[in-house]
Amino acid sequence: MLINALQRPSRIFQPLAVLLTMIFSLGVPFWVIIVTAGKSAVEARQPNLALPSQWEFGKNISTTFSEGNMGVASLGSLLLLIPSVFGVLLLGAMASWVLARRKTRGLSIAYTIGISGVIVPPAIVPIVLLLKQIGLQGTPLGLIGVYIGMYMSTVIFFITGFIRTIPIELEEAARVDGANPMRVFFRIIFPLLGPVIATATILVSLFIWNDVFYALFVVGGRLDTLPLNLYQVASSGLYLQNWNLIFSYILLMTLPMLLVFIFAQRRIISGVTSGAVK
Amino acid sequence: MNAGAKVKLLLKRPRINAATKAHSTHPIWFIVPAFFFLIIFFIVPTVLNFVYSFTDWSSFKTEVNFSGFSNFTQLFSSGNLVADLRITILYAVLVAVFQNLFGFALALLLERDTLLNRIARAAFFIPVIMSALAVGYVFQAVLEPKGPVNSLFSFILGRPVEIPWLYDTSWTIVVVSVIHAWKWMGLAMLIFLAGLKTIDGEVLEAARIDGASWFQTLRTIRFPLLAPAITFNVATSLLGSMNSFDIVQATTQGGPGGTTELLNIYIVRAFGQGLFAQATAMSLVLLIMVMVLAFPLIWSLRKREQIL
């Protein structure tokens, strides 16, 4: 045992190094979030590492709901998230199927345009102008359209790559039996897209759930979403440096994504690393 | 009809068949709804960005007229253009350096598949799924002059420390880029870990038998083989941080004295003041800067895909 430890000092030092790195880089911020979310307003004014003299976690949580409109904001976030994710994945998958299977010059150009948004940043100011002209500025519908347009490229990029690995013979067998394209796509292809759809759903949900920049331009002041309300709670004079409320808000807002991450860890990790290292 | 034309027709026929077959089996209307959203909400605004940058569009007027390069000359003479562009590029470079440095160090530290390492990898991914705005507020609190970080330093050094992390005109840009890197280092770590896994264990074993040290194998074998992971990480962190807003807005709001004012911070501020055309002109600057860097990246992504 001792000889082994001397021969491979890393066996002892490595876990120690891991623990120390975790304590200093993650432990401090996470600890501050949790203890501050449990403090009274007076105690939380100066953020520190001390435990609250009395846990007021429940009271802070109920204040975020009553004064921070947490409930309405959650509904607002879901109102944007669900149609955007559903729309971008369904329409993106349909387009990807044809883009992956047909190899004409025109469609190759269409594919390049289709994936351009993976890198090119959305032009937010002209988006606002355009939404004004078509009467959608300030509406959830407008922002849903913006999210669908913005993340379409990511979805097409992911799904087209995946469909190319599905043997075309599977489709041809169904076609011989007389299935039309709608049927081939929804009965044969779509069910096989499970893994890539799951990954893309999680990624796009993460972006939309946490988005404050585009929401600020399109629906700022007209619709409550979780990040928009956090922004208002933190920057309005009334709540300035009410760290207990800010951190309660952050805890509640992170929780759904944290649960998704815990249950879908493997999928997320394989999703974000696929294609990056080849 | 002569024989040559007949041959031509015969040769042509299967092609027509293949085209019409593809047309009926993979109809073009499947891509129409997706491209409807893409064109209306993404491509058209991007094109309009070029148009409106050369107008006097603002909240103070009812009509929009062309005004040539006046937005750009105004941005240039006020000093905003050069200053914000310089700050954004510096921020992006610093983020790319720190994010990859932290990510690579974590990947090497957590390389072996032990229980503790697996827990640590998941823990380092938590900041990635957190809202960037929330991360910004957390660090605003943690880095307060009398906040937790300074009190930790005071405790370790045994004397009072009150470093103004977020109120220094020359160093705060570095601090906010470290916060940005902290949020995303878990992602860089995962990509480096995946890259390390693709390296053949036998090659490393052979090098070790030949007497190569851990550091030698890292420098001469593993680092060069990590090239794709490094390219991906550097490119995404550079381009991603240029379009950043949330973290800086939550920690410094562009201050102190405008020393952390990224292009997007300016765009939000100008838009809020009703200077729509100036905001658009600045977003064109951002767009062009990202595209200049991005085209080689798109090209290499497509190339990589063709190899697959």
Automatic annotation (TrEMBL), chain A:
Pfam families: BPD_transp_1 (PF00528)
Presence of keyword Hydrolase: no
GO BP, one annotated term: transmembrane transport
Subcellular localization: Cell membrane
GO cellular component: plasma membrane
First-listed, main subcellular location of the protein, grouped into a coarse class: membrane
Alphabetical keyword list: Cell membrane, Membrane, Transmembrane, Transmembrane helix, Transport
Spans through the membrane: 12-34, 78-100, 107-129, 141-163, 184-209, 246-264
Positions of the ABC transmembrane type-1 domain: 74-264
Protein name, per record: Unannotated protein
PROSITE patterns per UniProt: ABC_TM1
Membrane topology, as annotated: Multi-pass membrane protein
From TrEMBL, chain B:
Cellular component terms (Gene Ontology): plasma membrane
All copies of domain ABC transmembrane type-1, residue ranges: 85-297
GO biological process: transmembrane transport
Record's bilayer topology term: Multi-pass membrane protein
TM region(s), chain numbering: 28-52, 89-110, 122-143, 163-182, 223-242, 275-299
Protein name stated in the entry: Unannotated protein
UniProt organism field: freshwater metagenome
Record has Transmembrane as a keyword: yes
